[in-house]
Amino acid sequence: MSFEPITGRYLTVTVGGAPRRIYVEEAGRGRPVLCLHTAGADTRQWRHLMNDAAVTDGNRLIAFDMPWHGKSLPPEGWETQDYLLTTEAYIETVLAVIDAMGLDRPVLAGCSMGGRIALQLAALHGHRFAGFIAIEASDFQPAWYDIDWFHRPDAHGGEMGAALVSANISPHAPPVERWNTLWMFMQSGPGVFRGDLSFYTRDDSLIGRLGRIDTARTPVHLLVGAYDLTCTPEDARRTAAAIPGATLAVMEELGHFPMSEHPEGFRPFFLDALARMPMPRADAA
Amino acid sequence: MLDTFHMVQARLDATPHLQRLGRLFSETVLVEVDGEEIYLGFDRGRLATVTPGPSRKTPWRFALRTDGAALAEFWRARPQPGFHDIFGLVKIGRGRIDGDILCLVRNLRFFKEVMALPRAGQEGAA
Fold this sequence. Notes:
The structure holds 2 protein chains of 2 kinds.
Chain A: E1 7-15, E2 18-27, E3 29-36, H1 47-50, H2 53-56, E4 57-64, H3 87-101, E5 107-111, H4 113-124, E6 131-135, H5 157-165, H6 175-187, H7 192-202, E7 220-225, H8 233-241, E8 247-251, H9 258-261, H10 263-276
Parallel strand pairs in A: 3-4, 3-5, 5-6, 6-7, 7-8
Antiparallel strand pairs in A: 1-2, 2-4
Helix pairs in contact in A: 5-6
Chain B: H1 2-13, H2 16-21, E1 28-33, E2 36-43, E3 46-52, E4 62-66, H3 68-74, H4 86-91, E5 95-99, H5 101-106, H6 108-115
Parallel strand pairs in B: 1-4
Antiparallel strand pairs in B: 1-2, 2-3, 4-5
Keywords (chain A): Hydrolase
GO molecular function, one term (chain A): hydrolase activity
Organism (chain A): Roseicyclus persicicus
């Protein structure tokens, strides 16, 4: 028997003036790389990369479950709350985890809504990071659907959400990983996917901020899958074009959850992205 | 195209997990391909009837309208981007979905997998 190299622990941070118990996983040593999961999912999306010695050789990969997701509990009193993620709360949560863990200018890698908030952080708090890997990330995506469909008493929101997002998974993805990816959506708590989508489909504040990103100080590399219907290559190209100095790679055989749906296919793109990010300064090591 | 949906009917009959997923689904769905109407009559997860149109008297819950070339690509083992999902067909302008969309979304996994039954590589799905 041998354990995987991933270890998980809990920490409590303050967000919105109240405590949040956060589940954090990490693997590897070296440059910190903070990884953000997509809407309706959790850190398990990153497990393949965290178990990949080529990735963790020189990189300390850290992933955490957002409050309400995975093994991070919702806040006290959740039973009467309507969970709707906001840009402000999302930023506060990411920075609180960085502070609590004492991370010095990590690389931030986020997918989908995690990629969106990575670009928000690049615009508003770029000095806190070494660089940004924005995966399936775009400036704004309005919903063609009603987000309330995914939180209703007469149907299983997780199963409906999984069936919806399956449209974004590439047919090149190995079936086992397609279904593992969908399982996470099926497991998300009641209303959680809807609350994430509220942030993702209603807040367009990033559009006016993209030009502020200083890629000379903190590089931004975007990755987009050709099979992603939610953030299409056109969406990613438009977003990259609005960030002076940003770079972009289109992944022809991948979809919206590349690290989870097709880890082998994603691996070279992620390694290339990491190579584009600066190493820690010697005085900060 | 009618023959293809008779094949869907037979494959669904031989796919127990899909019948279980669709056990609460008893609705009529209109599929229109290059203007040819086909009414799919589902009964508790089975495709009970495959009825050619046109018909102005057959009520349907939701409809998927597309073209034969798009469906041919959709049914390849690894379709090109956009052709890989019914919502992809809509996104790239090769399909339209009308009617009670919430009914579709509540039964989305079932309906998408039924529509994919002719896909290459699904022969063994039974």
